[in-house]
Structures are given as C-alpha cells and as structure tokens.
Amino acid sequence: MATPVGTPPVVLVLAGHDPTGGAGLIADAEAIRALGGWALTVPTALTVQTSRDVEAVTPCAAGGLTAAARAVAADMPPAALKVGLLADLATLEAVVELRARWLELPLVIDPVLRAGGGQELSSEALLAAFRQRLLPLASVITPNLAELARLAPGAGTVAARAEALLAAGAGAVLATGTDGTEGEQVIHTLFRPGGTRQWQWPRLPGQYHGSGCTLASALAAGLAAGLPLEPACERAQRFSWAALRHAVRPGHGQALPDRWAGMNDLSTPGDRDA
Predict the structure, then answer these.
(1) Can you say whether residue 78 is alpha, beta or left, with left for phi > 0 and alpha for psi between -120 and 50 degrees?
(2) Bridge partner list, 201
(3) Distance (Å, rounded) from C-alpha 211 to C-alpha 208?
(4) Would you state the pLDDT for residue 134?
C-alpha cells in the first residue's frame, strides 16, 4: 500500500516517562512532531521525578513493552527508532528483540545513565549488558561527556572513548559537550569510521532538564525523514539550542526546553566547525 501524501515520517520511541514533560517520552514526542515527524511512544519505565531530580524509577514489564511496540508499529510502520532510559535487564533485552525486527531502520540511542539532578539511573551490570547487547545495534549514540566516560572507562580522551564505542559496533557517536563547564562555546563532535565533524554553539546560562532527549529525538526525526547523518545532526543541534534558548522554568529546579518555541526559532548563531 502506498504511503499517503503528507504522511509524516514515524519514529518508534522506547523511553521512560517523565511527568514534568521536560525529558522522556513527552520531550521525545514534542521534538519529533515539531520537526515534522510522528512519535509512537512506548514507555520503558515510569518515574517519580521533579524538575530537581529523579526520586524513583519503576521499569515497565518487558512483555507489555514488546506487545505495545509491535501492535502500534504494525499499524504505523516506523522509519526510525529512538531509545532512551532502560532501567533493568529485562527491558534492555526487550529492546534488543525489537531492534532485531527492524535492523534496516536507523536507531538513535540516548544513553540515559544519570538524572540531571545527580540520581543514578543505571548499574554496572546494566551498563555491561548495554555495551554487549545494544550498543552494537546503534546507528548513532548521543552521550554527553560524563556518559561517554562511563561507557568507555578504559580510554582517557573524548576521541579515544568515542573510538572505543565505534570499535564496539556503534555506527556513529555524537558526543555532546553540554555538561562541560568551561568556555563560552559548547562543542559537539560527530565521530564516524570515516572521520569527525565538530560544531560550536554559544553556551547558555543555567541548568536544563531534557536537552539530551530533545537532541536525540530531533536527530531520529531527521533520519526518519531521510536526511543523511551529518545534516540530521546539525539540524537537531540547531533545534535543541533554540529550545534551550527559550526554556521555561515552571518548577523550582532546572529549566525545561520549550520545543515549540524552538521550532519557530532556528536562527541559531554559531554551528561553525570547531
């Protein structure tokens, strides 16, 4: 059956639910829709959290996760996959199983290992399983500097750590520098087997909750629409920076990206090669 004209590219999102709307499935859906896609949202975990920090995480049942993903994807076939928080081994294995059904599709992984407020969201056993089972299936992974260090603890530099993830099977690594604290520019670097590309963006003041989810989902939306990796990375960064620039602070903690305002303000300065 031919795809109707005007049908948005579909992204299947497997991630945690954040009731603040700053991160998790709500952030994913907003970013994907703002950039012209359509998100199928299947929760991997439910969280108790505020704009300050995560208080509790409850993994969703692996069987329900798999059933929900299969059912909705049969109705609305995805063009890309995006994975976020995985809170236990059972849900990780469920995601690996689902990935095997759509090996031809781009898979963007946002390795959510720790909440912005500092709460630990992973374990060494889960990290090891992630490296062995899911990382080799990723088209692109989007760690920040702290996540990159935890995923490749034996390497001493950003480049060496990214190379270690490529050697482990990841198709590409977009290492983000938003959790750095030095300099007036934030540097993001795309590592691929064929070389690297860097972008610089003006550092924004304050602390933000949901920047990583926004970036990874925006990237998945671009890949679902057929953009090559590098242009999809650049558009995702521009969109995310604009969403952070217009961030709101409805709570008492971190600011939350305004992805609808970001959609209408993509006149981001910078984005030149570092």
Answers:
(1) beta
(2) 186
(3) 7
(4) 94
Q: What are phi and psi of 134, to 5 degrees?
A: -105, -40
Q: How confident is the model at residue 51 (pLDDT cuts 50, 70, 90)?
A: confident
Query: Helix or strand or coil: residue 184?
Result: coil
Contact 81, 108 (CB under 8 A): yes
**Cα 92 to Cα 69: distance, rounded to the nearest angstrom:** 14
Q: Is pLDDT at 182 greater than 80 in this prediction?
A: no
Using CA atoms, how far apart are residues 83 and 164, in angstroms rounded to an integer? 20
Beta strands in 76-194 (DSSP E): 80-83, 107-109, 140-141, 173-175, 185-192
CATH classification of 10-263, choosing from 2.60.40.10, 3.30.470.30, 3.40.50.10090, 3.40.1190.20?
Answer: 3.40.1190.20
Q: For residues 266 and 259, what is the distance between their CA atoms, to the nearest angstrom?
A: 11
Secondary structure letter of residue 36 according to DSSP: T
Give the mean model confidence (pLDDT) for residues 134-155.
93
| Domain residue ranges in the chain | 10-263
